[in-house]
Amino acid sequence: MRILLVYLIFSRLVFAHDVHETSSYQLQEVAAGNFVHVGSFPPYSSANRGDIANIGFIVGEKCVAVIDTGSSLHVGSILKSAIRRVTALPICAVIVTHVHPDHLLGLNAFTKDQPITVYGHHRLPKQIRTRSRFYLESLEQYLGTAYTKDHAVDASLITPVNGVLTLDLGNRLIEIKSWGHAHTDHDVSVTDLKTRTFWAGDLVFSEHIPILDSNIRQYSEVLGELQNLDINHYVVGHGPLDRPWHVVLTEQRRYLGVLLKEVRAAIKNDVSLMDAVNTVGWIESEHWHNFDLYHRRNVTTSYTDLEWEE
Questions:
Q1: 183: domain range?
Q2: How many distinct structural domains can be found in the chain?
Q3: In the chain, is it the N or the C terminus that has fewer CB atoms within a 10 Å radius of its CB?
């Protein structure tokens, strides 16, 4: 009886906390019908409960499309509840911009109760199958999340996008576009054609150091294409949304340009990878949040690719 009483008290405290968190969950309407929750800058932890990515949704006259679902069922559920604060329209689509867990692992909060079409890059299912076990182990390690199996994403749920796919949310057309090698080899972006709002996912970062999980040369080419987009509003995967688009892109292209130039020089001068990670690109260290966490990884990814460059 005492155990049951303690459990009931604990359950009520958790429920009260979650209700408060849902009601205080902040959304920005960056353009009419485009709602974004801006995540925290720190790496995910039990303190921020993994709420680190910019995620959100687009509301049409018929239904809602969700863009990324956060790093856990908790984050996904809070987003889902926030949608209900805005509209009672059904959620007809979830778009996963890429495989990284802070954008993916909240997916089951949306798919477990109702049939929803999930869209992603045609290479996304392979990446889910390859990385799922590691991501679930990391979830348990960093967030202390119980029942990590509940977070396992079924790769067969993904409706693949290869090129440009247009969805009609009801008097609101959105375009999902698959990209080549950039931030990853399986990024998609979403454009709301009605308001010309571009959801970049992690193709673009604002103030947070860009993360390279693919080919630096092709990533730089994609950023050049993005800089010339004719858009009115944007949503990046991490960081503030109130800075001029051309400034955000110029800063990111500068960083990758420095990385590309100095990695090539290191390889030419027979600088080992072990030494390169501590010397290449550190002129950029004062310009980015979380530089110490991700820059060495970017150098490593670039070095192991460019050392085979002819």
A1: 2-244
A2: 1
A3: C
